Amino acid sequence: QVQLVESGGGLVHTGGSLRLSCAASGRTLSIYPMGWFRQAPGKEREFVSAISQSGGSTAYADSVKGRFTISRDNAKNTVTLQMNNLKPEDTAVYYCSAKRYAGAYDQRQKYDYWGQGTQVTVSS
């Protein structure tokens, strides 16, 4: 089992930046591929970004490509999502997630562990 806790959400203006962090406890994070998802009011939870166990492979949704950067520090058991040039459509609750197996990185059903989420609000 692994417990995930997100932090770093908040309110920013369009064009601003936020840095989300996900801290893990219970087991070492290095064995899990990790992902970030988000859910806006009235919408389904959608894939944002993912990173392999080593950090050598990353993936992004088209809507955030070039603006968001995912990284991980396995020594510190953390995963980070740097979000730049934020837009109002980025407003959502952001969730950190971990999966036991590689592959299907953009499918939320394949993730086994979830954090409680952190709110990101981008004002126009």
How would you sum up this structure, described in words?
The protein has 124 residues and is mainly beta. The protein contains no helices and 11 strands. The strands form 2 sheets. Strands 2, 4, 5, 6, 9, 10 and 11 form a 7-stranded mixed sheet that branches. Strands 1-3-8-7 form a 4-stranded antiparallel sheet, with no helix packed on it. It is globular. The chain starts with a strand and ends with a strand.
Characteristics:
124 residues, 4-stranded antiparallel sheet, 0% helix, globular
Terminal residue distance: 40 Å
The average pLDDT score comes to 95
Give a short account of the largest sheet.
7 strands, mixed
Class of secondary structure makeup: mainly beta
How many strands? Answer: 11
Query: How much of the sequence is in beta strands?
Result: over 45%
Number of helices: 0
Give the secondary structure arrangement, pairings included:
Elements: E1 3-7, E2 10-13, E3 18-25, E4 34-39, E5 46-51, E6 58-60, E7 68-73, E8 78-83, E9 92-98, E10 113-114, E11 118-123
Parallel strand pairs: 2-11
Antiparallel strand pairs: 1-3, 3-8, 4-5, 4-9, 5-6, 7-8, 9-10, 9-11
Task: Write a concise synopsis of the structure shown.
By secondary structure, the chain is mainly beta. It is 0% helix and 48% strand.
